[in-house]
Amino acid sequence: ALTELVIRDCQEGVNALHERLSTAEIEDSEPDDSDDEPGSMPPPAPSSALSAFFPEDDQPFEKVLEECIPKLPFNDIAKDLLAPDFEEGRLLFDFYKFSEMTEMDASPWIDESDGDLIMKVRELTMVAKVPPAPMCPPTTRVTISVRVSSFTSGGQRASVLESSTLSHDVPFGTHFSVQERVEFRPNAKGTSTWVVKSTRVHFLKRVGWIKGNIEKTATNEQKKAGEKLIKCMRERSKARGTQSYMPPGDSMESRDDEKKREEVVWQLQRRTTIFQFDWRAPFLPHDGPKRCGWVDTAYNRHLWMPPGYSQNTKDMPPLIEDDSFKEIEKWHVNNPLLTADADGWQYAVDFYRKDSLWSATSSGNSVRRRLWTATYAVNGAGLDDEMSMGRPPARLTQSMR
User: Fold this and answer.
1) Which CATH number is 176's domain given?
2) pTM, entire model
């Protein structure tokens, strides 16, 4: 077909047409995909499971849990997470079973490894119980995209378990995904495993005014799920008994006689107004468990704080050793972050968990925090059961006031 185009007295139109024709010539000169050699194929698109971990927004993760599991070697956990089978006896399967999931099924791993970075992705489907809520069914089908990465960071191996969960049968369930990140890393000897869990909600569609409620509910449920994961790991640690992994150069005798435990605690303080310097333990009603002044990494009352202990004004963590504990490294301020003053204090308007909201200056800020750490040696095997459950021996909490 031939088209005749007549343009009169319009230089701008001529220029625009010339530009369009030039573009068309370039497009026509590009090779057609149909002319590719036989057997050649375009690069495969990323898997749907992998794409779940690349949201378009930059919503930060919120840390909800940090625990150390004694006598559970990191190497065992790292291997277990990457195992090809998904069945009873595997940590992830046992965790979901303990969480009362049913009809569990898993796709094969998709290997996305690159060099020293080991990365595998798979998709899980199951049926989950739904917490009581208006208009919600008792159960829902869920799809969970799982990614496990193993890498070296700072000269130390680490494994990261990431998941993105969609609920199909609850209102607005497909409008958002609940994402979690669980980092596993070894202690100094590799005989215990540190667990740090963070979570966030990634919204795929607008949900209006219920967005805040969804975020709050999801975060609370993820905290509960984290506690269940820790319980599963402690059960595995307890089941190992004397079969614990022993690194080269270590001896069973030395490990039985002396076992190390590192403890961390946040010291929190608040002042009356930003114009005063009367720093003391948090005192406002909404400060809740933070009013004791010494909290864990989730800002809950520290596990080693005795019942009834509150409004502590001491300048050292309120712990006391007895014959069962030998202090290897004394309590000291150990804030690894650069945003702290000379005494290790960080300042903010309120007790945020997000590190970027804290600064090294008190000007205009109402609260402050600093991190303390200490290392203890636990003498005698009689304390193993209490330590493996994450509790201090009863004798430790005496005379702490």
Assistant:
1) 3.30.530.20
2) 0.51
